[in-house]
Amino acid sequence: MHSASSIKQKFLKKWIMGLQLCNSSKKNMTIMERRKAIKLSADLALASVRNCTTRWSRALVASASQNDDNQALLQHIIGSDAAKHKKASIDVVANSTTSVAKKIASKKILKRSWGIRRVRKLSNVALKDPPYSIAKRLVKKRTQLLKNLVPGGESMDAISLIEETLDYMVWLRAQVDVMRSLARASERLDGK
Amino acid sequence: MNTPSSLPEMLHCADMTVLERQRARVKWQQDPLQLHAQSEGQRYYYGGGGELNGAFGLGQSIESLLGGGGGGVVFGDVPNHQIKPDPGVESGWLSSFDLSGLAYGACGFGGGTGLDANFAINRTLSCPPAVVAAAVSPAVTPAVTVEKGKESAVSEKMTQAGRESSKKRKTDKGHNTKIEDDSKGKRIKGCPEEGESKIMVQSNSNNNKEASASTSKENSKVSDVPKPDYIHVRARRGQATDSHSLAERVRREKISERMKFLQDLVPGCNKITGKAGMLDEIINYVQSLQRQVEFLSMKLAAVNPRLDLDLDNIFAKEMNPARTASFPTIDMLSDITNPAYLPFSPTQTVASCSGMEIGINPDSGLRRTISAPLSIPDTFVDSSCFSVIPAALCTTFPNSQ
């Protein structure tokens, strides 16, 4: 499909486009605002270069589209088929939020129903506590952490989470590369 | 050795009816002869089991003998040093018993070679007995000399047996792969299972729960071995957890496969074993990348207040030349846009340059190839960026100012 270089070029183009739009839409931004705008545009550019085919990119777009201020930017970067993507991404968001809510609710119910028996069994379990259960708990904890890191990870299962993490990592790296080179360039320019 | 994987099954079978046990054995070694031997083995096993337990105290040797069906017969015979083959047993069988029995006795004498002897027995017994008999029959005559107590002959014969059995191991694919793949975890696996099996031998109670627990544990341990026949056996046992465990195994395989990719991708992750440690690395890496993005955006924001427009304009010329209007040098020719176009393309080549140095990275293959080299050209890119961009930008600045 793409080579890494073409990916980076595309990303840079989209990003600069987004930056431009931000710049033109809002004058005299504070440094924090600028930062936010830069990050948002970079994220959106990344997502749009990824064609919104992966879950993390859709989640990025979705999280951006929740804020009304970003609509113009979104339209601009994502482009003509923004509507389609937005729909999909909103679906993603809705799915994730509902599923998370459901999960929490079901967990609560489960806890309540197990509460009585738990107390009795607790001493028994604590006595045994086999090593593999400790490992399992560790892995679970880390998986949860990873879910929080990867955009849209809350609604993924283990396999897709790892796949998405793979993909996300590669693209994040490309993003970092481009941003770094641009930062260096602008720094250099600033020094002149 | 296939005892670690096969034994719990076998021992578990010992609690079942004879029919079930026979079926299990047939699955394990597709040899009809085994059925005869097995029933005998069982008889001897029940007769002399306790005594032998006391006499040898070698859980492994007991297992190995049990594992090989016919071994039970040898088991009963060896302590008395007399061979009592059943009249119904074929002569081929007899010879094989001779050999293994004597070998076992020999290993009892020569303490040093005990372990090897055990292995050899294991191997020979794990093969289909008929083949063993055929292959080993020339070695029966030396076996007589063994009885006289010549250990050199013993070792010779042992090696012979070992060789032959190893030959057969190659033919014996299903078990073979299991052996190879299990060899790593064998030591760890062997101990608890030995213990369990001992317990089961001694108690002989029909403790279903324990049995299922042990099998499930075994399931998880052998999970990384894709063997259709093995799964087949599992499925046939007809336990409620089976479909679940199958699905679980497939899932785990998938996860571990992807984890391997991730391991390749994350620098410094390939030395770490264990899922938790790997996840730690991955989390760290992703977090560091995200922080880098944050930091870089902050940096850009900090650098840009004065420069934002400039950079934007520089890039804007590339995007839409009309925007050069904001420049003071508007009255410069329209082909200013072309020189002004230049600074962007170097940055583009900078970006692409990093791609070039990575090599050809088609998107699909991106995951693997990108891993190591990307961190190195990074510095290259950035150093080249110093040289390329400012030069290009400087050319525009005199123009614009």
From TrEMBL, chain A:
Residue ranges of domain IBH1-like N-terminal in the record: 5-67
InterPro entries linked: IBH1-like, IBH1_N
Organism superkingdom: Eukaryota
UniProt keyword Acetylation present: no
Entry keywords, A to Z: Transcription, Transcription regulation
Name by which UniProt lists this protein: IBH1-like N-terminal domain-containing protein
Organism: Eucalyptus globulus
TrEMBL record, chain B:
Main location group: nucleus
Location of the region described as Disordered in the Swiss-Prot/TrEMBL record: 144-225
Entry keyword set: DNA-binding, Nucleus, Transcription, Transcription regulation
BHLH domain location: 239-289
Single GO MF annotation: DNA binding
Single GO biological process annotation from the record: regulation of DNA-templated transcription
PROSITE patterns in the cross-refs: BHLH
Record localization: Nucleus
Biased composition regions of type Low complexity, renumbered to the chain: 203-217
Pfam families assigned: HLH
One Gene Ontology cellular component: nucleus
Protein name per its UniProtKB record: BHLH domain-containing protein
Organism whose genome encodes this protein: Eucalyptus globulus (Tasmanian blue gum)
